[in-house]
Amino acid sequence: MSTTIDITEETSAVAKGKAPLIATTTYTGYKKGIAIFDFLLRLGAIVAALAAAGTMGSSEQTLPFFTQFFQFRASYDDLPTFQFFVIAMSIVGGYLVLSLPFSIVLIIRPSAVAPKMLLVALDIVALTLNAAAGGAAAAVVYLAHNGNSSANWLAICQQFGDFCQKVSGAVVASFISAVALVFLVVLSGFALRRH
Amino acid sequence: MSTTIDITEETSAVAKGKAPLIATTTYTGYKKGIAIFDFLLRLGAIVAALAAAGTMGSSEQTLPFFTQFFQFRASYDDLPTFQFFVIAMSIVGGYLVLSLPFSIVLIIRPSAVAPKMLLVALDIVALTLNAAAGGAAAAVVYLAHNGNSSANWLAICQQFGDFCQKVSGAVVASFISAVALVFLVVLSGFALRRH
C-alpha cells in the first residue's frame, strides 16, 4: 500500500515540473542561437532606421540661381510625407534601441516567453510603420524624379539633384530596415514555437 | 527490486506522452475560439482588400470641359503609385481568399502547428505589402488633395473631385484591411503560444 502511494506522488511531480523542464533544456541551445542572431539583426536595423531618419532629416539644398517656377531652397520640411517619414523612422529607430535590453534578456534566458511576446508584437507594429513610411516616401521620391504629365507635376529632381539623391538614399535605408524587421519577426515566430 | 523497475517505467511514460497531452486538451477550446475569430477577421480583411483594389481600379473621371493645363481624363493608370496599389491590394486580397481553407483547417484542428506557422508568416508579408501600398497611395492622394507649393505641384482634386473621392475611399479601405491583418498576426501569435 505504501509503495503504491509513492508511485502516484512521483508521477504527478513529473507531470507538473520535470516533463516541461526536459523539453526546455533540449532546445535551449537552438533558442540561444536565435536570440543572439535577433540581437545582431536588431543592431543592423537600428543603423538602417536611424540612417534613414538622419539622411532625410538633413536633406536640404539651396540653389545658387533663381528660376521662375522654383524656390531657392528644397528641404524635407516642404513635403509632409517626408516629415512623416522622419517621425516614423525615428520612432522605429528609437523603439529598436529600447528593445535591445529585452533582446539581451532573451540571450541570457532563451526560454522566457513574456519578453519574446512583447518584442514580436512591437516588432510587427514597427514593421508596419516602417513599410508605410517607406512606401509613402518612395511614392513621392518617384514623383520628384519622374514627375507626372497627367497631373502636370514637373520632376523637381532636375533642379534639386543633391536633395533628391539624399532623399532616395533615405528611402533605400528604410527598405533595408524593413527587411531586417521582417527577418526579426519571422525569427521570433520560430523562437515562440515550443518544439 | 521488481517494484522499483515498475516505477521507472511509468514515470518515463508520463514524461514522454501524457504530460503534453494534458496541456493540449485543456487549451483546445481557447484555440478553437481564436481560430473561428481568425476566420471571421479574414473574411472582413478580404472584403476591405478587394474593395480597395476594385475602387482604385475603377477610379476614372472624364471632365466635360477643357483647361489649359489639365487633360480631359483622370484614371488610376496615370499614376504608377496607384497601379502599384491595385496590384498590391489584389495580391493581398487573393492571398487572403487562398488562406481561407487553411483557416478552416485550424478551426477543425486547433492544435495543428504547420498551417498556423504558414499563415502567420504569409500574413506578415501581406501586412507589409498592404502597409507599403496604403502609405504610398496615401502620400499621392495627399498631394492630389493639397498639392505642394514648394515643388509647384497643383492640387488636381479641384478639377477631378469624383476621381479623388474614389481614390481616397480606396486608401481608407486599404487601411481597414491593414488593421485587420495586424489583428490576424497578433491573434496567430497568441495561438502559437503553447500555454
Question: What keywords describe this structure?
Answer:
disordered N terminus, 195 residues, homodimer, two-stranded antiparallel sheet, mainly alpha, elongated
- Inertia-based shape of chain A: elongated
Computed structural class of chain A: mainly alpha
Question: Total domains of chain A, how many?
Answer: 1
Biggest interface between chains: A-B, 57 and 57 residues
Q: How would you state the average pLDDT of chain A, rounded?
A: 81
Regions of chain A with pLDDT < 50 over 5+ consecutive residues?
1-23
Instruction: State the oligomer.
Output: homodimer
How would a textbook summarize the main sheet of chain A? 2 strands, antiparallel
Residue share in helix of chain A? over 70%
The proportion of strand residues of chain A reads: under 5%
What is the CA-based Rg of chain A, rounded? 25 Å
Give the helices and strands of chain A as they follow along the chain. Answer: HEEHHH
Put simply, the count of helices of chain A is: 4
Terminal residue distance of chain A: 39 Å
General description of the model:
Chain A has 195 residues and is mainly alpha-helical. Chain A has one domain (19-60, 76-192). In chain A, 77% of the residues lie in helices and 3% in strands. Chain A has 4 helices and 2 strands. Chain A has helices at 2-57, 80-108, 114-146, 161-192; strands spanning 60-62, 73-75. The first copy, chain A, has a two-stranded antiparallel sheet with strand order 1-2. In chain A, helix 3 (114-146) runs antiparallel to helix 4. The first copy, chain A, is elongated and about 65 Å long. Chain A starts with a helix and ends with a helix. Residues 1-23 of chain A have low confidence and may be disordered. At the A-B interface, helix 1, helix 3 and helix 4 of A face helix 1, helix 4 and helix 5 of B. Chains A, B: Its main location: membrane. Chains A, B: Homodimer and heterodimers. Chains A, B: Residues 32-180 form the Casparian strip membrane protein domain.
